Amino acid sequence: MTLHPPAPDVPSGLVVTGADAASDTRPRLAAIYGADFSALSITPSRGDRAPSVVRSALPRFAPWNAATGTDLTAWHVVDMGDAGAHRLAWEAAFEAITATATSAAEAAEFTIGLGGDHSVTYPI
User: Fold this and answer.
1) Cα R_g (the chain), whole angstroms
2) Which of 12, 55, 67, 110 is least enclosed by beta carbons within 10 angstroms?
């Protein structure tokens, strides 16, 4: 993939919702989704909250790489939402995460799963 600077009229946000992505004319760089599950942690955790914590931090990161002169806002990243697994039993949770990961893989070549506890790597 060749990275080029954005045109002056491109939107400034890198991450867009699924609804907004449909009308975004920029090329799609990736898809992110939440694997919001933590019931199988050996020690109690709230890893199911990780997707929302990461999303809340994303606006603080600059999409500009000064070393390469690359502005990632020339593309967009579609946010596929969370799997909705946080209140499910593990089998149903893993099915929901697998379905969400599959949808993300169909939406973009590069996907980012925001987990949960370590068990979410299995359905991803």
Assistant:
1) 16
2) 67
**Which ranges constitute the DSSP H helices of the chain?**
18-21, 50-57, 90-107
Q: Specify the amino acid at residue 121.
A: T
What Cα–Cα distance (Å) separates residue 63 from each residue in 24, 35, 60, 98, 117? 17, 24, 9, 29, 27
Q: What is the pLDDT of residues 35-63, one digit of tens each?
A: 999 987 677 788 899 999 999 998 888 88
- Which residues, 6 or more positions from 10, have their beta carbon under 8 angstroms from its beta carbon? 26, 73, 74
Six-digit token string for 40: 């199988």
Q: Which tens digits make up the pLDDT trace of 1-35?
A: 455 444 444 455 889 988 899 899 999 999 999 99
In this structure, the number of other CB atoms found within 10 A of the CB of residue 54 comes to: 14
Per the CB < 8 A criterion, the answer to whether 73 and 14 are in contact is yes
